[in-house]
């Protein structure tokens, strides 16, 4: 940035580089210490290492150096060295559960914002009809697309395929997917969402949560058993105050854990919720930095205890 002097930039770069450059590069990268780099930092001058994502070779012909092209964490895999960016867009994989927002209705498809580099695509053939009827989509269905989903609707879906340009193809051909009703959507870094077999959770505190692999988290009231309809039957009645407070507390706990880089899953979010209740904090108190820092630290401690018990 223009207001930062060159001296400051040089000092930052040299401090980080001094932690990374070591004569014994293999011993250096075999340790468990995390290695951070800035763009332009030298990673290694050992030419036996291969260049991975986020790196490039210097133009110096006499002494080829491996240089970081992005800010991130050095990740060596055998002789291949890559740099994983600290913040990045969502890179989808087939089978991922996502939460997205409809941004455009097109010919036989919807465009969906999923926090990825390109807008995702939901084909008309990839959605369930009302009642779960399975049949080929007709011209009448194409005309009625906006009755199914329109701009601004929030949906849950699954990544079905990845196109050549990197765009994601989605589908909602299961009654657990579809349009979402009343709730709160929280946006966090996709790297903080822990990959698990199940990303739909019915929490015992009286709320449902969907942890989308793309970093969008959906918090809603508890849905009655057997009421899954793919979003074609939604309840827009007033939500009781107690349930709204539960959802607000969950929302603030989720954002607080993400701010302090705690991995998000149903266990960590539930621990943070329970700790905030035990400490008698009101949901609005969780917006205070010192309060959420305390809850995040106690949640991390409780997760470590749980892992130790699980190992033993």
From TrEMBL:
MF GO annotations: RNA binding
Tagged with keyword RNA-binding: yes
RRP4 S1 domain ranges (all copies): 89-161
Pfam families: ECR1_N (PF14382), KH_6 (PF15985), S1_RRP4 (PF21266)
GO biological-process terms attached to the record: CUT catabolic process; exonucleolytic trimming to generate mature 3'-end of 5.8S rRNA from tricistronic rRNA transcript (SSU-rRNA, 5.8S rRNA, LSU-rRNA); nuclear polyadenylation-dependent rRNA catabolic process; poly(A)-dependent snoRNA 3'-end processing; regulation of gene expression; TRAMP-dependent tRNA surveillance pathway; U4 snRNA 3'-end processing
Superkingdom as given in the UniProt entry: Eukaryota
Domain K Homology: 183-222
Keywords assigned: Exosome, Nucleus, RNA-binding, rRNA processing
Keyword match Manganese: no
GO CC terms, sorted: cytoplasmic exosome (RNase complex); nuclear exosome (RNase complex)
Domain Exosome complex component N-terminal: 37-75
Subcellular location as annotated: Nucleus
Family: Belongs to the RRP4 family.
Protein name: Ribosomal RNA-processing protein 4
Phylogenetic placement of the source organism: Eukaryota, Metazoa, Ecdysozoa, Arthropoda, Chelicerata
């Amino acid at each position: 940035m223009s207001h930062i002097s060159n001296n400051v930039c040089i000092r930052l770069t040299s401090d980080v580089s001094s932690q990374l450059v070591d004569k014994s590069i293999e011993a250096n990268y075999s340790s468990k210490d995390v290695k951070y780099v800035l763009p332009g930092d030298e990673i290694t001058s050992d030419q036996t290492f291969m260049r991975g994502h986020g790196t490039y070779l210097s133009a110096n012909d006499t002494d080829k150096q491996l240089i970081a092209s992005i800010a991130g964490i050095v990740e060596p895999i055998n002789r291949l060295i890559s740099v994983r960016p600290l913040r990045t867009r969502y890179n989808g994989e087939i089978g991922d559960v996502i939460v997205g927002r409809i941004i455009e209705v097109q010919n036989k498809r919807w465009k969906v914002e999923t926090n990825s580099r390109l807008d995702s695509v939901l084909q008309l053939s990839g959605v369930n009809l009302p009642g779960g009827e399975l049949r080929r989509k007709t011209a009448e269905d194409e005309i009625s697309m906006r009755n199914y989903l329109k701009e601004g609707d929030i949906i849950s879906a699954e990544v079905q395929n990845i196109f050549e340009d990197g765009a994601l193809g989605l589908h909602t051909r299961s009654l657990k997917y579809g349009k979402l009703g009343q709730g709160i959507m929280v946006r966090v870094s996709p790297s903080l969402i822990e990959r698990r077999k199940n990303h739909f959770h019915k929490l015992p505190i009286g709320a449902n949560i969907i942890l989308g692999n793309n970093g969008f988290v959906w918090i809603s009231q508890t849905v009655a058993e057997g009421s899954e309809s793919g979003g074609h039957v939604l309840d827009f009645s007033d939500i009781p105050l107690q349930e709204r407070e539960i959802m607000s507390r969950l929302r603030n706990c989720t954002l607080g854990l993400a701010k302090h880089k705690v991995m998000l899953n149903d266990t960590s979010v539930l621990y943070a919720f329970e700790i905030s209740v035990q400490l008698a904090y009101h949901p609005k108190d969780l917006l205070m930095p010192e309060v959420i820092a305390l809850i995040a630290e106690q949640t991390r401690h409780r997760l470590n205890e749980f892992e130790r018990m699980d190992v033993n």
